[in-house]
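Below is a complete specimen:
___
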Amino acid sequence: MFVISIEGRERDSIYYAINEQKEEVIYFFEEEDDAVRFAMMLEDDGAPKMVVTEVNRDVAIESCEINDCKYAIITRNDFVVPQEGNRDFI
């Protein structure tokens, strides 16, 4: 799986979206190409330079569950675009 973070801040930032319940939801992408495209859309929307990083699926999910973080796994069949004005990072 892959996550998106701010270049140079890979250790302390990760992209998340805000859902309808106003909760932060970390996006995990199954496909690197999808993550790269999403990162480019973020940059086009004014976000700083982004970087895509591979993470261990089990560790990432377990970390979210331990820390009570919401997450979404974006599969190759999903179509997501950045939310307008949402350039949030943990």
Summary: The two ends are 18 Å apart (CA to CA). The chain is about 25% helix and 25% strand. Helices lie at 32-44, 57-66. Residues 2-74 form one domain.
